[in-house]
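Lab manual, section 2.4: Encoding a predicted structure.

Procedure: take the sequence of the chain (470 residues), apply the prediction step described in section 2.3, and record the output as structure tokens. A sample record is shown.
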Amino acid sequence: MSAAAILFVCALFFERAADAQEKAVPRSRADLTLSYASIVKQVAPAVVNVYVRSQVRRQRSPFLDDPFFQRFFGGGGDDFGGPSQRLQNSLGSGVIVSADGLVVTNNHVVQSEGGAETAIKVALSDAREFEASIILRDERTDLAVLRIEGGEKDFPHIPFADSDALEVGDIVLAIGNPFGVGQTVTSGIVSALARTRVGVSDYQFFIQTDAAINPGNSGGPLVDMNGRVVGINTAIFSRSGGSQGIGFAIPSNMVHVVVNSALRGGKVERPWLGAELEPVTSDIAKALGLDRPAGALVDTVVADGPAAKAGLRPRDVILSVDGRDAADAQAVFYRLATKGVGSEAELAVSRDGQPMKLKLALIAAPETTPRKLTLVDGVNPFAGATVANLSPAVAEEMSIEQITGVVVVETKAYSTARRVGLRPGDIIVNLNGKPIVSVRDLVDALKRTSRGWDVTIRRNGEDIRTVLRG
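Recorded output:
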């Protein structure tokens, strides 16, 4: 056998030996003692339990708002079905992300019923407890930022990782307080990325993991093998209420945007696209010359909005944002949101089957029409509803596509508006045959005495008409 042949055989032997070694059973105690303990010791001190106590005001009878009943019951004390108080307690998890005590958790952990005042306490793994205050709540991302009170500046904390660098199969740890049993660590892998059909928040773009997540884990961190936060655990898919291996976390890049907004002392400002997007189906992809159904189809473009100024047109398909694939409309909005206001994004677009690049200026949605928040009173179906003029800014805040008209912002408990079924986000289209395009139109129409009210509202893009008797 020649020397070359011998070398080839030896190389083949060692290559196969290496393959066999990769799949071999453990041969020593050291092989059996591999552990995540060092990572847990590093990050666990920064994971906190969040305790929330609220005094919820509860109205026992809706009739006490009626002056007729108040004449007999003197304003409605507790003995006659009047307002009563009850304690509402909730428990979740959180993570400290700065040395001066900034804590991130889920909004639903600290959100109280009816906007009641809350007392929040956080407990560290070393049994220390501190009062905390809310400095920012963002319902659209289901995130809240708290500040630990007490003046310390040396809290253990965990840095953020770039969640866009995650890959399916990466090992992650979920840390929190499931079922209130105490701090618990579970391990798993990243099962999927960019999940957009979860229905947890407005920005449906989640990391999916099989690390066990249970009630009480909400708000706790999902960490990588470098001990950095890659996500905030927020929801599970379950038929039993417990973990079934499908958990979802808000990516750290979105969390970082919300934390930065809290540090600036304001609300979360999101870039306004100024266009409505739709899914790309197989039929649409074929008609537009795409090789597969992917991206977000531009349906309508607002005149003089950012999309129009960038050159986007109806029937364009947005395929990526800054080189990152955008599988659907939710992915586009997520990519823009994590860029932040004041920067610029490059959109890869397909137009009539031809690729092109467009520059999109990222600006906040303008309030082109004063919102004129108005609480409706009187004897009418809208009594107890707060309404406002729509504008791009109001539409963005309320996740509404329509940017003109009158929208219901909220309804008071036990009000007529709530009893007839009005909801925040309902757009008032017509009242007794009169088109409603402004709050002034609605107020004027309600001044007219009527034995019945012919009402048309638009909810989730669908017009609903009903006749209510006075």
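Check your result against the sample. The CA atoms of residues 257 and 383 lie 38 Å apart.
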